Structures are given as structure tokens and as C-alpha cells.
Amino acid sequence: MGKRLWTEVERYFDGLLLPADPVMDEVLKASSSAGLSPINVTPSQGRLLWILARVQSSRRILEIGTLGGYSAIWLARALPAGGRLITLEADPKAAKVARANVKLAGLAHVVEVRLGAALDTLPKLEAGGERPFDLTFIDADKPNNPEYFEWALKLSRPGGLIVVDNVVREGEVVDRASRDPSVLGVRRLAELLHEEGRVSATTIQTVGSKGYDGFTIALVAGDGT
Predict the structure, then answer these.
(1) What is the CB neighbour count within 10 angstroms for residue 63?
(2) Which residues constitute the domain of residue 24?
(3) Residue 218's closest CA among 207, 204, 208?
(4) CATH number at residue 131
(5) pLDDT at 222
(6) Structural domain tally of the chain?
(7) Is 225 contained in some domain?
């Protein structure tokens, strides 16, 4: 058991369940050519985000951490006519690549890439009177996960979903002696969720071509929940 087998299994299911997607292939190539780190979600994880957005009947989606726009495109493809996705990116180069990739995918009219540190741009969303979001995907710098989650909760509608990526950290999340800022950020998020009565949450461990990790899904109270 190991990454080689996990990758083979991932490829097996992707080959059967995910249709060929030349646009997404070009998006990944463009991100790689620009020198962006290959830390985007996998195709199967992107498909999961798409499914969650569809099940949620999402019309408004917030993403924290854009990179090259790969996950933003998956999510935006799930939106109905008139839907909107706002994605926040701190790195100017990544934001530029993401905008080009979103345009390549034919979604420039749906996706807005906002440049700036998320903890600076999130308050502006609230101050600007943005309507509540149906789904928020958090995939940015892990030390700030708790703060990102608190903002996501504030900006979510009752019954909304909040998804946080990379929360298992190759299992290091259970190492109480770890001083890794990313691990500490994930642990603080888990402790926050433990105390937060306005959400019901679970964490799913994952394995695949990107190694051993996982994601947390939190359902915001309301709409009968």
C-alpha cells in the first residue's frame, strides 16, 4: 500500500468516470508553464466540488485561494445561469494566470478573481453588501484556516457548505509536538469546529496522486439543519 497504488486506483476511476477534458488539460499546462506550484486539487476532487455545488444548488460561491483557477473552474461550471463565483488570490502572478485560464474556459463572465490577501479582501466583501454564499471552498495558506473559516461562516447563508482542503497533512495533524505553522493552523481549525455550535462538520481522509491528506466539510445551521 502506498502512493503508487493510490495513484493507479485514482487513474482507474478517473478513466471510467471523468470524461476527457481538453480545456482543463490546457488550464493545468498553463499553470505549470507559468511556474505555479502543482498543488491544485486533482480531477476527482474537482469533480467532487462540482457535485457538492450542484447538490447544494449553489448560485453564489466563494473561494479562498485561487492559484491557477483550476478548482474555481470546476466550481463555476456547476453554477446555473446568473450564478457567480468570487475567488480570492494574494499572488499577482497566480491571479493573472487564473484570469487567463478562466477566460480560456469561457467563464470570465461568471468568475471574478480578486487580488489581495484574503484577510484584507474578506472584510470588503461584507462591507460591500455581498449576498450570502451557498458554498465556500478554502484552499489557501493553512496557518490562517481558522480566520478564513470564521469569515466563511459569517458570509454563508443558513444551510450553506464550507469545504476546507488539506487538513490531514500526511497525518501530521495528530502530532501534538509539531511546530509546523500549517499543522497548527489545521489543529486550531479543528478545535474551533469542536466549539462552534452553528455548524455540523466532518473530516474525510483521502489518498491519491497527491499523497495522503483530507478535507473538512461543514454544514451551516439553518434550512432545517
Answers:
(1) 29
(2) 3-220
(3) 204
(4) 3.40.50.150
(5) 81
(6) 1
(7) no
How far apart (Å, rounded) are the C-alpha atoms in residues 138 and 135?
Answer: 10
Residue at 192 is within a domain = yes
Angle subtended at Cα 23 by Cα 18 and Cα 28, rounded to the nearest 5 degrees? 90
Q: What does the angle CA 29 – CA 31 – CA 34 come to, to the nearest 5 degrees?
A: 105
For the chain (225 residues), the mean pLDDT of every run of 10, in chain order, is: 92 96 97 96 97 97 98 98 98 98 98 98 93 97 98 97 97 96 97 96 96 97 70
Quick one: DSSP state of residue 58? -
Neighbours of 111 (CB within 10 A): 25
What global pTM score does this model have? 0.96
Grid cell digits, residue 2: 502506498
81 neighbors 110 (Cβ within 8 angstroms) = no
- C-alpha 15/C-alpha 186 separation (Å) is 32
**Is residue 148 within 8 Å of 118, Cβ to Cβ?**
yes
Does some domain include residue 109? yes
Helix (H) / strand (E) containing 115: strand 111-115
